[in-house]
Design a protein that fits this description.
CATH architecture of the largest domain: 3-Layer(aba) Sandwich
Protein name: Arylsulfatase A-like enzyme
CATH topology of the largest domain: Alkaline Phosphatase, subunit A
Strand content: 15-25%
Keywords: Hydrolase, Metal-binding
Distance between the termini: 50 Å
Helix content: 25-40%
Number of strands: 19
Organism: Shinella granuli
GO molecular function: iduronate-2-sulfatase activity; metal ion binding
CATH superfamily of the largest domain: Alkaline Phosphatase, subunit A
InterPro entries: Alkaline_phosphatase_core_sf, Sulfatase_N
CATH class of the largest domain: Alpha Beta
Strand order of the largest sheet: 5-4-6-1-8-11-2-12
Number of helices: 14
Amino acid sequence: MKAVFVLFDSLNRHLLGPYGGTRIPTPNFDRLAARSVTFDKHYVGSLPCMPARRDMLTGRLTFLHRSWGPLEPFDNAFPEILHRERGTYSHLVTDHFHYWEDGGATYHNRYDSYEFVRGQEGDRWKAMVQPHWERLREKYHARQFSDQRRSYFGQNIINREFIKEEKDFPSVRCFAEGFDFLDRNRDADNWMLQIETFDPHEPFTAPERFKAQFDTGWQGPIRDWPRYGRVDELPEECEELRANYYAVVAMCDHLLGELLDYFDRHELWKDTALVVTTDHGFLLGEHDFWAKNRMNLYEEVAHIPLFLHDPRHAERAGSRSGALTQSIDLAATFLDLFGATPPAENEGFSLCAMADGTAPRQGALFGYFGGAVNVADGRYTYHRFPEDLSQQELYQYTLMPTHIFSPFTPAELASVELSPPLDFTKGATLLKVPVIERSPMYNNYGPGALLESETRLYDLESDPGQEKPLADPGEERRLAELMARLMQANGAPPEAFSRLAFDAVSGEDHG
């Protein structure tokens, strides 16, 4: 068996042709759907970027006990299991620079080898001690300009001074490195290649030929990086932001097409699996919001695309699966493809077994650490918030106390306790770290970041746009009980239940 895993970032399902999207031509996603199984009910798990990747590698939901952080000593990582059990070689090609920050530094070493392509967003790539800030200030919109050291905005501006031609774009270079691996290794057996690009994550930067088809007539400075929060821009500015996102998706479609051409040219469809998905979606003004992290986990963010080609089942090409799946299923899928055994801590199911619509999962649990706990059952979504986000009892359970950019602060660690092992920590005692407002995560992607905190129920059959919360006490009670059961199966700590007014043992709703 051989496998290629393509992972995009912030790729919106509803804009892709196979899911009914018409605003952006995506002929190569259409080609992919014709060659694979398209999953219609695929959801996220833990969010945002690195929590999502921890779920993917380990096959476990992590948001109920930990925010953004590294893989832990007790975590299982499917590339290592493949190496240990089957001798499978794994190679990661990525421009996702979060892997090299404090909060992601244990992920890439789980692969046999890796290639890091530099230059995306705030990657500390190019060094300019005295940039021409006045010239650059005129070039970029004020909301995405900064001359501060170590700011994502400022570093991105410098990086973009070195990305001029199409071949310079990090995502283009990512795929080129992927093809380099394939050129050297496609005739070998027993390998997995992960091609992972940060695009179409913001800033929405693409070569001019992709932008031309979405020209808005914008005459202002570069505007391709929306805020995380409520929409307050003028309509023409909103259109420019969206158009730049469309351009990056068009570039991603083109790069996917080059990979499909490679599969065609070398007949890889016969013996090579292909999985294509993303970590989460991105709001482009829907629900009056930009981005993610700050608002309720609407379908645009939580309901994501997924395609699977399994060479053992060529007859499934062009089919669709209505099974309820989520990101934690990826680990079990790659283990299945290579004949390896999932560890006892695994919560996912193999997508190969669900490609025919078989649905072993009653509900998909997902969320941000410190925010709502959310569940989808294929028709309804239920989003349950604590009564008071600022007063909830909340702890991080970890042996790797780092945030995105830094270690935990002494103030956070001042009141740390030792916690007995949780169900999934293989007997390891943990640090139990109280969440405080001075935590670097609190107002960035934690409780202090949220602009919405109202418990809601939606019926996607009658209200697919989630515009009218449903008042149905019976349905809410059913989903609350399902949520509590899934949390209990996950081994969530006791306060994860009490913060939602659940009884940890019975799952009884006390709200």
